[in-house]
């Protein structure tokens, strides 16, 4: 039987256009070791690990006439150097130049005729640093058979790339006749699937929405009775093809101290900090902000099924991510009350016993947040953009240093994709005692994303300085 894309994976391809590419990104910054760390060494490292990620050497093949969903086939012309590219900033490159490059790279859709991932080795950073920018399509990382590349190339100790033998041999793709025969065979068993496939491909929004609802299934149940549209505001607008990207670096200890003083969880504090920043951002734009004003965030969270004993690397790939809707109280002027409102809203999810605690996620080997952010983006992409204003993902990471080859990773920022009518997405990751924010915005609607990043720091300082 063909390795056919799931309904959800196919929907990400159908919904993609030039303005809203459906890939998740990440930016990792490394200290170059004394022995160096170059593009060739990265190629060796990635090539060595690709055996664990067969999907990364497969491409999408459409069925003639779109009689069925596309299938995954081996890329007989797979070219690793096409996917692991070399780039450079004019030395000494600044962080601002790096993040401007990230924005441009993330705005570009990927070639659908090749495996749907790319990695950029960026040299020229000041301080003898290098960066790795990755892009992975949401159709690729499903958390079951495939995890994110960053989870496999990072190790807890420095590693040398040893010589290895690549035994991979691509299988010939099926012929058009075989693709049609397989599609007809499946249609006999599920006659309604043919109509859904054709309608979704030609852009029938109702068909696509129905496909998503069927694919997501249980995820929709987390909404409960909450189906009203999201509050109107500047974040819900037509998204252009341009992007802006900004980052924030903060200390994990600050969030822990705020939690100890005012209650809640570290994730609650993160959301409260984001809320305070969004409040100041709205006011700086002259938006009307009343005491009762809110912005609705879609907050994906990892969950465990009842009876699961422990969250482990094996459990991760069989895990589930649920997207919860949380109204952020941007109208509340008191930062502690904002935190209390959010803690109360989040408690109904954490009290269910399904949400994974941060301390459990930290036991996962490898850099699990790279995969968790990809799964979070998939969950967010499964909902109508009319019911939320922005996406906020937060995945705790390991607190010990990680290495790509012999290069120590010093910073890591998620890049969450924008939906068709969402102009801002915020990814958050903790690593080695720091909390890193990646703010991905539409270049037209949120051109001042750098100011918003500064307001995140101000919002954290406001909470730190509040003793009430």
Write a brief caption for the model.
The chain contains 15 helices and 14 strands. The protein is α+β, with helices and mostly antiparallel strands and 468 residues long. Strands 4-5-6-1-12-11 form a six-stranded mixed beta sheet.
Relevant terms:
six-stranded mixed sheet; 15 helices; single chain; 468 residues; alpha+beta; Chloramphenicol Acetyltransferase
Explained architecture:
It holds the Pfam family WS_DGAT_cat. Pathway: Glycerolipid metabolism; triacylglycerol biosynthesis; Lipid metabolism. Helix content is 35%, strand content 23%. It has helices at 7-15, 39-49, 80-83, 95-107, 149-153, 176-189, 191-201, 205-216, 252-262, 266-284, 313-316, 335-350, 358-361, 368-380, 449-464; strands spanning 23-31, 58-61, 71-74, 84-93, 117-125, 129-137, 243-251, 295-303, 320-328, 390-396, 403-404, 407-415, 424-431, 434-442. Strand 13 (424-431) and strand 14 form a beta hairpin. Helix 10 packs across helix 15 (449-464). The protein is globular.
The class by helix and strand makeup works out as alpha+beta
| Spatial shape | globular
β-sheet strand percentage? 15-25%
Mean pLDDT: 84
Which H/E pattern describes the elements? Answer: HEHEEHEHEEHHHHEHHEHEHHHEEEEEH
